Amino acid sequence: MDLDHYEHCDQRHDGRGIEGVSEIDLLIPLDPETQERRLLHKLDKRILPILCLLYLFAYLDRSNLGNARLQGLPEDVLGGDPTGVLFDWVNSAFFFTYILLQIPFTVLSKCYNPRIWIGCSAILWGTCSISMAAGRNFTDLMIARLGLGTFEAAFGNVVVLYFSFYYTKAECGTRIAYWFGFATVAGAFGGLIAYGIEHVKVSIANWRLLFILEGTPTILLGVVLHIRASGPSRVHSQFLTTAERKIAISRMNKGTSGDFGVVVRRSHVIAAFQDWRIYVGGVIFFGLNCALASLSAFLPTIIATMGHTSAMAQLMTVPPYAMAGCVLIATSYSSDRLQIRGPLLVCTSTIGGLGYMMLLGATHQQNVRYGATFLITSGTYASIGLTHAWFSHNLGSETKRATGLPLYGAIGQCGAILGSHLYPLIEASAFLLFLAALCALLLSVSFRLDNMQRDQKYGKPDPNDMVDTSELADKAPAFRYLT
Predict the structure, then answer these.
(1) Alpha-carbon torsion 406, 412, 417, 423, what sign?
(2) Cα→Cα distances 400→162, 274, 358, 414, Å
(3) Residue pair 329/177 in contact by the 8 Å Cβ criterion
(4) What is the H or E stretch that residue 278 is in?
(5) What tens digit of pLDDT does each residue of 156-181 get?
(6) Is 158 within 8 Å of 174 (Cβ atoms)?
(7) Prior bond to 424 cis, omega within 30?
(8) What is the pLDDT of residues 262-271, one digit of tens each?
(9) Number of neighbouring beta carbons within 10 Å of residue 204
């Protein structure tokens, strides 16, 4: 991390002292563990609430097509779309720009204040979401979805990258789970909103009202992020004490090291494109996103085929997402405590695959099919959270993370395009989740063997020591992977 970002932290610019810190607090000596716990609490209060809310609405904005489909969008705009092909293309259009722009946007974001970067992207994707309500034909919807993908590409991987700046490898997984867990909240919340809108009598179509209600809060949050002094930022001068500044810098250099200044290391960008493990991670993410996209777009439809009305199908999507959120946080917390990622990822991916197999096999047992949706959502969401946490540390340097995270993410999002076309061929999703489990096992063994070889050659390092990753990134002799 750049030391200049922490200059002059002991005073607010208006001379009133430090926000949230009394003079008594400054005089009482605290042990290092208590100081670090206080710092972590401050970081959580500043970073997590606004980013979690933004992800909630980002996920609502990208996944509400499944709800809009049951509220008459194809009949009103797509000429009925009897084959479902036009709807599939509108659904997958989001991913075209989302995939192409993830890498350049994430690398470029290192050069800007995240409060401004994320705030601008939120305002713009919220505008695109609302514009869906004004769609009159297939072309209008395609343009709005392409714009939505463009501006959400500047958000998701950027947040995971910033988490790796603030949190250690023993904390990052749980924070990513809190953040990504709002995707499951969005799934549940989206079903409740759609159920409520289904019963509202207004002068416009219900699906148009859905896009307006779910897009407007995104714009408001983006504006709040711009004007709010305590938004997420790498510039901590307004709320850290001198002691906290030193602890923050020390924390960011536990088992790795941060960049000094606003820098993008070309050699690390190239190293990311040459790292075979990132491409294996892409295969894992491909399978997970294929399953997730298929689920997000078609879960209300799948439940409706069990004999329920469209309104009841919207409501019955809530419990599977609620369960998924609980499992996601539990597995990520366990992963942080045990400092393992791969074995848990193998288990959760397998659970999701088994859920799809149950959905495929129990054609006449509707209770079993509904129960299978719990396994699918829980296994898939937990697996994605673990994958983000795994690579947020194992790429070593900031620049390699800024390149590698969106690289495997872009490969994975191709699975989202496939997933939006898969239903009712759900056996493909099951196969891809089992493939993700095998790839996770391969990566875990590979990381473990690499750690053992470095231990034999260089000795075991202290996990709290700073590791110079400025030249070799994760290939530095003292760097150790999470397995």
Answers:
(1) negative
(2) 13, 11, 40, 21
(3) yes
(4) helix 276-304
(5) 999 999 898 889 989 999 999 999 99
(6) no
(7) yes
(8) 788 899 999 9
(9) 9
Question: CA torsion sign, 262 to 264 to 265 to 266?
Answer: negative
Q: Which two tokens stand for residue 427?
A: 């056996």
Tell me how long the chain is: 483
**343: which 2 tokens?**
């074995």
Residue range 14-36, pLDDT digits in tens = 444 444 444 444 445 567 788 88
Concatenating the DSSP letter of every residue in 375-386 gives: HHHHHHHHHHHH
**Separation between Cα atoms, residue 148 and residue 14, nearest integer Å:** 39
Residues 224 and 122: their CA atoms lie apart, in Å, by 10
SS3 content of the chain, % helix, strand, coil (to 5): 75, 0, 25
CA atoms within 13 A on the CB side of 315: 10
Measured CA to CA, the distance from residue 252 to residue 47 in angstroms comes to 16
Report whether pLDDT(373) > 70. Answer: yes
Rg (CA), the chain: 23
Q: Where are the alpha helices (DSSP H) in 362-470?
A: 366-394, 398-422, 427-458
Q: Which value, to the nearest 10 degrees, does the dihedral of the CA atoms of residues 8, 10, 12, 15 take? A: -110
| Element counts in the chain: helices (H) and strands (E) | 19, 0
